[in-house]
Amino acid sequence: MLKSKYILAFVAFALLIIACGFLPSSTPVATPSFADTPAALPTIAGVEEPRALTICLAEEPASLYPYGDLGAPARSVLAAVYDDPYDLVNYQYQPSALAQVPALDNGDAQIVPAQVEPNGMIVDADGNRVSLSAGVRFRPSGCRADDCVVDYDGVSTVTLDQMVVTFRLRGDLTWSDGVPVTADDSVYAYQLAAADEAHSFISARTQIYEAADAQTVQWWGVPGFIDSSYQTNFFPPAPKHIWEKFSAAQLPQIDLAARAPLGWGAYVIQEWAAGDFIKLKKNPYYFRAAEGLPKFDELFFRFIPDPNIALTELIAKRCDILDPSIRLDNHVGLLMEMQRGEQAQYFAKPGMSVEWLGMGVVPASYDDGYGVDFQIDRQDIFGDAHTRQGIAYCLNRQAIVDTVLYGLSSVPASYIPPEHPLYDPNISALPFDPASGISLLQQAGWRDTDGKPETPLVAVTVKNVQPGTPLLLNYYTTDSTQRRQVVGVIEPALKECGIGLNTRYFSQNDLYASGPSGYVFGRNFDLAEYAMGVEGIVPACNWFVSAQIPNVENDWTGANLSGYNNPAYDEACRQTQFSLPEEDAYLQAYRSTQIIFSADLPAIPLFYRLRVSAARPDLCGYSLDATANPMWNIEAFDLGECQ
Hints:
Elements: H1 13-19, E1 52-57, H2 72-81, E2 86-89, E3 92-95, E4 109-116, E5 121-123, E6 129-131, E7 137-138, E8 150-151, E9 158-168, H3 183-194, H4 200-204, E10 206-213, E11 216-221, H5 240-243, H6 255-258, E12 267-273, E13 277-282, E14 298-303, H7 307-315, E15 321-322, H8 332-340, E16 345-359, H9 385-393, H10 397-404, H11 434-444, E17 446-447, E18 458-459, E19 472-478, H12 481-496, E20 500-506, H13 508-511, E21 527-532, H14 567-577, H15 584-600, E22 603-615, E23 619-620, E24 638-639
Parallel strand pairs: 1-14, 1-15, 19-20, 19-21
Antiparallel strand pairs: 2-3, 4-9, 5-6, 7-8, 9-11, 10-11, 12-13, 13-14, 15-22, 16-21, 16-22, 17-18, 23-24
Helix pairs in contact: 9-11, 10-12, 14-15
């Protein structure tokens, strides 16, 4: 089955969902000691005190090795050490360390014909890297759809499409030790990444990654591999002149790479006080130094897991910025008051993460192939799309946005935010309309048989549901303040439609435990509230493809928690992988997934999750973006009168 590099990491999907959850208000957290916080340098007559900025993170990074498994705090620190190849701002690539974004239009991305001999390596029609042998299904050159796929005869030389992408480094990049950054450093980084299982998808589909000249790298895909996210196939340079004396296995373990990696960005790591702070200083070789950047001489990252303590430190000016990794979701109202009182600035931006109400469309107990056994299995409550749509009409999602999220987000129509270029504006979110909801539930066969509005509807003619079964649903989620607030809005609205809830709150470990016994990944739920998000700008239509259903075969690691299976949706999502962003087929494939999704509703998107941050009132240049690293323009941060 086809997989894309930006959707590959679902083995760790439980961690992604947990990271998107909320800590319960009663969760104990360690109170950091500020006794050892670095004091300002003593003032010496005639010597100007260095300008310093302090950014507070939710936790201390485990490592800063750039090619490892990085959490949000580590990415914020590394934004000060490196300028990324691109900044992902407002769902668009903006060149930073690279001179321009490769594209078909500017010639830096090309599709060329490649001849392949028998037993040569190709990517087949299903996206797998295979040897060209008899019976292999492949797309000949010019073929993008399934109707032109052919079976290999075992003897012929065939021609397939091959992608070639050219990446051009800026000519003025310099490592913080004064050595120029070169294309060879990027090739070296590719070699390091290729040794890491986390990068195996793209490395397996790379035929050549080579330096064309001192500032130019070329990536050649394996013939047959049409990569819709080809712009990301650049490997950020690694300091070969420093690291090459160590093996790829050693680098993540040594301080030179894991605690003080050399970069070309605005700042250089100077000190790491474990459990307390990371101190950086201005990089004298920064390529934008002539512009007066960065604005600060010193930069501190402190680690404060408790949002309440972090806010206190912000008011006391011992934190200048509270990174979004600090969970401020439950403090938006307070932040608004602080901004009105000119004690702080607050920032809240919906992005690519969605809060979902998943419906157990196909429980794992159905996987035995014997159909629904009323004596053993849960009833097939959600099998009829009318039931799922009726539930959606009975959810007052706008009230959740208005009350729980202070009107700062919106009710989704699909899994793609409305500001995204791939969003289909012809699709609207279902409104709160109990009358329509009840009508749809009745069409599915649910009836009010006792005339008591306070009791749930019961099944009368619902397909694959035993008559007399009440519409009383188990609702599972984590024990967080915000999710309790969401349930407080949802429960009375559903009751108005004759839908009863049996709500249970779990710890994150229990709710997201692996299958088959886990509730969410074991597909053992009626309704479950959880979050899913992506890093980057590419929407994850694969969240609902059949290949991502958690089951025995994939070790219960898939993202399609509802067990939804629609071949038309699968095919539309597949087509997003066989076309390129510049092509109309790419847009149409994504819009097809949204149309199918909005009709089938295997899960109901409740709201786009907020990224929340805060800063002192006189901080300039800082803002939050839906897709950008919060520190993407850290070199421009300043204090004083904002322009």
